[in-house]
Amino acid sequence: xxxxxxxxxxxxxxxxxxxxxxxxxxxxxxxxxxxxxxxxxxxxxxxxxxxxxxxxxxxxxxxxxxxxxxxxxxxxxxxxxxxxxxxxxxxxxxxxxxxxxxxxxxxxxxxxxxxxxxxxxxxxxxxxxxxxxxxxxxxxxxxxxxxxxxxxxxxxxxxxxxxxxxxxxxxxxxxxxxxxxxxxxxxxxxxxxxxxxxxxxxxxxxxxxxxxxxxxxxxxxxxxxxxxxxxxxxxxxxxxxxxxxxxxxxxxxxxxxxxxxxxxxxxxxxxxxxxxxxxxxxxxxxxxxxxxxxxxxxxxxxxxxxxxxxxxxxxxxxxxxxxxxxxxxxxxxxxxxxxxxxxxxxxxxxxxxxxxxxxxxxxxxxxxxxxxxxxxxxxxxxxxxxxxxxxxxxxxxxxxx
Length: 401
What we know:
This protein is mainly alpha-helical. It has one domain: MFS general substrate transporter like domains (Growth Hormone, Chain: A, Up-down Bundle), CATH 1.20.1250. The protein is built from 17 helices and no strands. α7 (141-170) crosses α15 (330-341) and α16 crosses α17. The longest helix is centred in the middle third of the chain and has 37 residues, at 220-256. It is globular. Pfam families: MFS_1 (PF07690). The chain crosses the membrane at residues 12-31, 51-71, 83-102, 108-126, 147-168, 174-197, 223-245, 265-285, 292-308, 314-336, 348-368, 380-397. Residues 21-401 form the Major facilitator superfamily (MFS) profile domain. One of its GO terms (cellular component) is plasma membrane.
């Protein structure tokens, strides 16, 4: 009986189509997050063109992150009951619309509206894509989430690099060229949607939502407390990374006097390390336990974050490699840990955690921007260095396996 119950996911894991689906999801995540990362990558250009202060830049990020964070749990809750295979392609279509508006935006209000459209596309994309990754995993949930997540982080890393060589020399209108990436994502996600629709037709609902559960007899109170701890860890990770994604280029320009294009290359170094860390976190969690990865990945970064504000240019860039690598390994482990905690609510969990992550990134960008206007960008990085201390909360997580 056990073999029959596990047949749908076992079949997905051992066949070519499941691997193709995971790679398709990773590629589409790359394209989706590439589009997203172009916006903060050209903040220095927009700041000069539209005469913005740091607070206004933070509000642009907040518009994107708030749209994504508030709607993702709603989308996840709905698709738990009513899966929408082709919503993935529709979400990418909204990102394409936001990209087009961004290329032609004549005013600051139009920039904010474009950011909100891109955020709406992300809200639709992430919960359902995460569910498809789990369905195609064949039981190796951490590996599947890492493959999915590394695509997003790779896209985030490529954004500043492409911005440095394409957008900065040619101006805001060159954003339109990146519509090709969004159109490619729509095509890939249409194929993934067809596979997903076929799996929904052949896989029993219970196998899609409860496989891999490892909760045991945790009480409702303990589950709620555990979710709260996980969200606190997400807060520490994404509030800190917001300082890099939105203001690291300004930090390098202000403190070391590097040119804008060179600062984008240094940001690429950090984001490349983030992508590598995301790929490692899931498989290590599958092998050694997710709690160990969560605890080590967040708290282990503390010595490097404390050293960074006191380093010269060379060591600043060098320190961002272990910071990105260690910090990013947490998200796949946290997400799969939470999915195991609530196995019947995969969409809700994915939407909640991705949404909360985006929300903390947006809130962090807005608050840190205002703080930078008041105390200076260098002081902001010194203060943020202590955020990983929150990682101590991970010792309170129950062992699920």
